[in-house]
Amino acid sequence: MPKVIADEHVETKAEIEGKEALESSGVFGASWRIVLFRAVRDNDMALVKRVCESHPAAIHEHFTSGMQEWQLSWDSLRWYEFADATALYIASAYCSDNVVEWLLQNGVDPDAVCYSKQVALDVIGQCTYDREKASRIDKLLKQPRTPPQPPVQPTLFAKIGYEDHLKTVYDEVVNPEDPDGPKMRKARRVTETVVRCKVSATYKSYWLPPKTNYELRLREIKGTEWKIERTQATHKIMTGLKPDTTYEVQVRAKNVAGWSDFSEVVHISTPVGKKQPGEEGKEGEKEAKTEETPEEKETREAADRKKRRKASIL
């Protein structure tokens, strides 16, 4: 039986030149969704992997929801079916068997619902049909799911950062209207620079979906007690560090199969001491209005009344 081709896409010269320019530059910018759509449609595994290196979560998401209608209609006659689609759904519709296999190997959900409540299995070959590839995709999508492996060991980058904090300090000053009376409290705002540790983690694993759990741990070098933080972000700010101290930091990732190994240890050292409030010409200081306690206010008002009585007698 001969192959039946429907909705076959023939690349124009402009598209070929644009694709070559993208591949040579390695920069996709805001158009990465268009590049990924075309790469999945054309079964271009090399380009799919390159886009996913910069946008690893895209293989799990309905990434075309961020595309305009004219962008989709330019690349597919059945663009309306891909207005809210996953990479697996598109690959199945265009018989991109290599992309389907790679996506499934990387933990993509084959039951993700797209256009008209359909999944990838429902649309095999609807846009481009190849009997051999369609049969292979059908087997891939129907095969029993293999238990996922724990995430690969992540890579961690850590650095020391600084952060300015405003705080209020109170000075005791002489009351100009009653020099012999109790002193007043005058408030002022000062800037204090504190040491911060910003831990930025990069995970070289395509299939870690959004909201993956990560665990970062930090301790003084040769210490025994770890400070542990868990997050679903790929970066975390850990505070409360001591000056002139060396710390070691590690991170690991988790999926349904369990935790990965911890990353290699990264050492970071905090500087000696901290900037004192008011240093360097008291930069950052801001005078605030005078604040009094109730007792001080009562004393000042009594002194004012006494002065007014004396003035009225004279």
UniProtKB/TrEMBL annotation:
Residues 276-304 have a biased composition (Basic and acidic residues). Residues 268-314 are annotated as: Disordered. SUPFAM superfamilies: Ankyrin repeat, Fibronectin type III. Residues 305-314 have a biased composition (Basic residues). SMART domains: FN3. Residues 181-273 form the Fibronectin type-III domain. InterPro entries: Ankyrin_rpt, Ankyrin_rpt-contain_sf, FN3_dom, FN3_sf, Ig-like_fold. It comes from the Eukaryota. This is Fibronectin type-III domain-containing protein. It comes from Triparma verrucosa.
